[in-house]
Specification:
Layout (H helix, E strand, L loop, with lengths): L5 H16 L15 H9 L11 E8 L1 E2 L6 E2 L5 E2 L1 H19 L4 E7 L4 E8 L2 H9 L4 E2 L4 E3 L1 H10 L17 E8 L5 E3 L5 H7 L4 E8 L9 H8 L9 E4 L3 H10 L22
Helix pairs in contact: 1-2, 3-4, 3-8
Length: about 280
């Protein structure tokens, strides 16, 4: 097989990791230069055997239009300020255009989270202008409810989204596409309710070609809000392969987080094994 073959590429890389780790005891690189290498190699072997290919993505943007305080602003280096929803619109504009540049067959759908309900406002399209236009015309709403039931979101996904079937016997045959839902949650007082016994959520968590990523954008003074409780609740969406980020009113960090979500789910590492550093470490 060639080095570009997805099967050989994954296997060869894992073998290299193990060979490096199990060098002769005389090698000082066994323990000092490669901390945790064995654990990372084993963790990657335990991942499902999936094709490491940039197949088209169908991305469901799940955008929270509610906010606790519209006067709590993001500030850029040049002094420009953005309300929470407008900052989410800005980073989504970057994300959508970037994903479309990477793969023009990427499709986007939009679900909006209102105070106590969710609505599908744009079905899947690869027309960037359409999805951006829909996002641009959204208005911010106040958050009144103390909790938001994610069953409203699951019901929409169940009715509107078809997830490719994973077959063990054909595990290295690329699917026609994968589905990813990116939840951008913006409230700091409203704790989401995610019932772990929900049958459809259980179904989603075992789908090899369905992923849920999370970006939680909250207020700065978490001691005055319920940021920790909300973050913990959102973790219930994770089946072990999600990317989860939380940011306060930090414009640089929210751009950095959305950039990290550009990675294709079939080609990225587990989040705990990612390293965004540059250069050689001493």
């Amino acid at each position: 097989m060639s080095s570009s073959d997805p099967i050989s590429f994954n296997v060869i890389n894992e073998i290299r990791l193990i060979i490096i780790y199990y060098r002769e005891p005389s090698s000082p690189k066994n323990t000092d230069d490669y901390p945790g290498l064995r654990e990372q190699a084993i963790a990657n072997f335990q991942k499902p055997n999936l094709p490491n290919i940039n197949v088209p993505e169908r991305i469901i943007i799940c955008l929270d239009v509610c906010c606790d305080n519209q006067d709590s602003l993001y500030r850029l280096g040049d002094g420009t300020t953005f309300t929470p929803l407008n900052m989410l619109k800005r980073v989504l504009d970057f994300f959508i255009h970037s994903k479309h540049t990477i793969n023009k067959r990427t499709e986007f759908a939009l679900i909006i989270l209102k105070d106590a309900s969710a609505f599908l406002v744009q079905n899947f399209t690869n027309n960037v202008r359409d999805i951006i236009h829909t996002i641009d015309f959204l208005n911010a709403e106040d958050s009144v409810s103390e909790t938001f039931d994610f069953k409203h979101v699951f019901d929409i996904v169940k009715q509107e989204v078809e997830i490719p079937e994973y077959k063990q016997s054909e595990c290295m045959i690329p699917p026609p596409y994968i589905v990813r839902m990116i939840v951008l949650y913006a409230r700091s007082k409203c704790v989401p309710f995610i019932a772990q016994e929900d049958s459809y959520l259980t179904f989603l968590k075992i789908q090899m070609y369905f992923y849920i990523d999370i970006l939680f954008a909250h207020e700065d003074e978490c001691n005055l809000f319920q940021c920790e409780e909300i973050y913990d609740a959102l973790q219930n969406l994770d089946n072990g392969y999600s990317y989860v980020f939380e940011v306060s009113r930090n414009a640089a960090k929210i751009h950095e987080s959305i950039a990290k979500l550009l990675a294709h789910p079939l080609q990225r590492l587990l989040q705990k094994n990612t390293d965004y550093g540059f250069g050689t470490r001493c």
